[in-house]
Specification:
This protein is an alpha/beta fold. Helices cover about 50% and strands about 20% of the residues.
């Protein structure tokens, strides 16, 4: 660097020191600027949002509408992104758009980057605003329909200034969304995939009993204490969820463990909703296993009857899950507290 400045021994003196320092500062500044230019990321957050929208919608026009940008502008940003990365991210054929293999890999990181950006904003807002903020809540299907509304009602009453977004889906999809930081906290009842567990904080929440219900007019309601034995199950007409349902599989596994051959059950109808099953039972069409939390209304209206099976109880554990490496916002902590508060009320 001294050679570059051409500073010989005769020039290196107090009289010229201010000039030398100034020149040295300029060179350091220019070198640092060039280093920073070379270290700049080859994408912007907006380009990541655009890629995510295009991948989700599989269409440039719809993606542009969602992001409130023009289609030419969106296409230009994708082209810039691909040029900077030096690889094609999207396949464009006719009116459809799909991710290339490189696009699929890059999108996974893009989603994580965007989630972290949102998380950092929430963390700052917590410090700045105290108990204000946003919260993404998840629930598996039965819980989302029958338990979560009570929790949300309590939470909205206590913290009206916090905005809540709720996603109801299968346990697998909800757990994956928590791992991907798309959901902050969730309550699930199914089996969580093993590969996701290492990234999750899993708390046992409550025991959910799955009970047998029959129409009010069914002969089994005349039995002592509404109790039947295992063999009586083979004489029922069952209405069930679809065979792919996790609840259906869980009930079958418990019954099989108790030496009950579920393959011999007379299943007369398969429906895709608990509400449809309850209505069918109340109309006298058959019997069904449902969550105890799902029939409170029916018990109040006295439209179905609960039958107990001798020496058999079908229970599953509901769990609260969060991302173990995620920042726990105040909104999340408040919601977590209300979950346990609701449990204490229920007990």
């Amino acid at each position: 660097m001294v050679d570059a400045l051409d500073l010989g021994p005769s020039n290196f003196c107090f009289e010229s020191s201010s000039l030398s320092i100034r020149n040295l500062t300029i060179i350091i500044f220019r070198s640092t600027y060039l280093i920073l230019i070379n270290m700049m990321l080859p994408f912007t957050l907006q380009q990541l949002r655009i890629l995510k929208a295009v991948a989700s919608e599989r269409n440039f026009t719809r993606a542009a509408e969602i992001l409130f940008v023009s289609q030419p502008s969106l296409s230009k940003q994708i082209k810039i992104l691909e040029n900077r990365l030096g690889i094609k991210l999207l396949n464009r054929e006719n009116n459809t758009t799909s991710l290339t293999e490189a696009g699929k890999v890059f999108l996974q990181y893009a989603e994580r980057i965007l989630a972290l950006c949102e998380e950092s904003c929430r963390a700052v807002n917590d410090v700045k605003n105290g108990d204000r903020g946003n919260l993404a809540v998840g629930a598996s299907q039965t819980i989302g329909t029958y338990l979560m509304p009570r929790v949300l009602a309590l939470f909205a009453k206590n913290y009206p200034q916090i905005n809540i977004k709720v996603q109801v889906d299968s346990t697998r999809i909800i757990a994956k969304s928590v791992v991907n930081r798309e959901i902050d906290i969730a309550v699930v009842g199914g089996d969580i995939p093993e590969k996701l567990k290492k990234n999750l904080e899993i708390e046992k929440f409550v025991e959910d009993e799955l009970i047998l219900i029959v129409p009010k007019s069914h002969p089994f309601t005349l039995k002592r204490h509404n109790k039947i034995n295992k063999d009586d199950l083979y004489h029922l007409n069952f209405i069930t969820l679809n065979s792919t349902s996790t609840i259906h599989k869980f009930i079958d596994s418990i019954l099989i463990q108790n030496n009950i051959e579920t393959e011999q059950f007379n299943i007369i109808m398969q429906l895709n909703s608990i509400e449809g099953i309850k209505t069918a039972v109340s109309l006298g069409l058959g019997a069904a296993f449902v969550s105890s939390s799902a029939i409170e209304k029916e018990m109040q209206l006295n439209t179905v009857e609960i039958i107990t099976i001798e020496n058999i109880k079908i229970k599953r554990t509901l769990s609260i899950i969060t991302n173990r490496s995620c920042y726990r916002s105040k909104a999340l902590e408040f919601f977590h507290k209300d979950l346990w508060l609701l449990k204490s009320f229920k007990n």
